[in-house]
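User: I'm preparing a small set of examples for a lab meeting where we compare how different chains pack in three dimensions. I only have the primary sequence for this one, and I'd like the structure in token form so I can line it up with the others. Please keep the answer compact; I'll paste it straight into my notes.
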Amino acid sequence: MSFAEDEPTIQLDRFLKLMNFVETGGQAKMMIQGGFVEVNGATETRRKKKLHHGDMVTFEGETVQVEFNE
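Assistant: Understood. Below is the structure token output for the 70-residue chain.
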């Protein structure tokens, strides 16, 4: 799958904070590097992973879809 360069993205650690899954960046880092986060069904350990519209993020049994408002 390819993405346009001007397509909006958000880093995984920031997304976890935005969704209130974690309270701090340090907590996000620990959860991601500890293997507690999945992106599109696969464990993701890169906290700076860029998420795109439509990606599915799972944390503690809750799955949410990444969406950007236009």
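A couple of notes for your slides: The longest helix spans residues 25-33. The beta strands are 9-11, 37-39, 42-43, 50-52, 56-59, 62-65.

User: Perfect, thanks.
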